[in-house]
Design brief:
By secondary structure, the protein is an alpha/beta fold. The protein contains four helices and five strands.
Length: about 120
């Protein structure tokens, strides 16, 4: 399941992943949230908090995620991923080398730091 994270700046989309994440979750939460950012700010600041293992994302969710990423490829400005999964955090840091914008991984203990970083324009 995906749920929006409240109380972030209006130019930041924050999403928390809990339990199983499906393509429908992305279509109802992530896709419209990203489109709103692109329409209003022409840039994406995205905070993803993983309170579930990436293995809990269905294949449909991964496909939907890939489509959204490609659709808005040039709009990504900042991506912060909060997780305890070291491999995901390292992937996020490396992702910034091949994608526009900047990506950083954070642990749950660094949540305040992640919010501060993603909220800087």
């Amino acid at each position: 399941m995906l749920s929006r994270i409240p109380d972030l700046p209006p130019f930041v989309l924050g999403v928390r992943a809990i339990g199983e994440v499906t393509a429908a979750d992305l279509e109802h939460t992530l896709v419209p949230g990203l489109q709103q950012l692109v329409d209003k700010y022409d840039a994406i600041h995205y905070l993803l908090v993983l309170d579930t293992a990436v293995g809990n994302f269905t294949s449909g969710a991964w496909l939907q995620d890939m489509k959204v990423g490609i659709k808005h490829f040039t709009k990504w400005k900042k991506i912060a991923v909060v997780t305890e999964q070291a491999g995901v955090e390292k992937f996020t840091d490396i992702f910034s080398l091949v994608a526009p914008g900047t990506s950083r991984g954070f642990t749950h203990a660094q949540m305040s730091e992640a919010i501060q970083w993603i909220s800087e324009e």
